[in-house]
Amino acid sequence: MMRYFLSRLLRALVTVALIVSAAFVVLRLSGDPAIAILGPEAPPEAFEAFRAAWGLDQPLWVQYLRYFSAIAHGDLGLSMRDGRPALDLVLERVPDTLLITLPALLLNMLIGIPAGIWAALHRNTVIDRAIMTVSVMGFTVPSFVMGLVLALIFAVRLRWLPSGGSDTLWHAVLPIVTMGVIGAAVIARFTRSAMLETLGQPYIRTASAKGLLWHQVIIRHALPNAAIPTLTIIGFMVGSLVAGAVVVESIFSWPGVGRLLVTAVANRDLAVVQVILLLIGFTMVGANLVVDMAYGWVDPRLRTGRAAKPA
Length: 311
Fold this sequence. Notes:
By secondary structure, this protein is mainly α. The chain has a single domain (about 85-305), classed as Orthogonal Bundle (MetI-like fold). About 75% of the residues lie in helices and about 0% in strands. The chain is built from 14 helices and no strands. Residues about 305-310 have low confidence and may be disordered. It holds the Pfam family BPD_transp_1. One of its GO terms (molecular function) is dipeptide transmembrane transporter activity. Keywords: Cell membrane, Membrane, Transmembrane, Transmembrane helix, Transport. This is ABC transporter permease.
């Protein structure tokens, strides 16, 4: 068991290192921070002084080694925009992001899992077709379109909710619903597929033949075995909470990490962008690691390599 978990942990650390490296290279090849921050009107001497002060005049490999050395010592850099520690700027925005992402995740599960189970139990009926039609519409519509449509209906037309800002909890309703509807649609489809596959297994027929009531077969045998694929998609969604908030926070002017990322990219504020990408990377890798560990506890065969990891 320990070997199983250590191998997953090592894979997670390698993944984070690759994410950091890719972000480092892409950010430095995507534009000159000196021009973005000082403006194109600044004199050449100002550009040279700025690059020298932030080490941007060094070869890329030297900057790369210095960056990893700084991370190893717990130094994630300063914001080029205001000189504050980049980590502090990001951590200030985390509570606001969690205020909409965690309720959205809960809404995903409260709607998506029952809807998927209900659709599977009523396969090829009007109920199943209606749930799947709504699900397809939900996960194919981009989040920015969904957000704009909800804002148009509930903020502009009906005037029930504010269209943006963060002054009250009512301002969080539209961002939460936008993320919740899309996520619920995805979970519903995965849950339905997992339930249908489980209901077709021989042990379900055996349990029914032994005289168990149908609801007992569902609760005792079908739901636990259909949980692993659903757990996979939920783990992925937990890992992508911050990344998924980027568009939604921008639409509704929500002052979270996602909106900070958009601003930092526009300003070429390298340290802030790198910290946010690190946060996203650690969140996704951490969630996947927890899911891998959950697989190991749910199905002991996975720890011994006798069963393939569920897709």
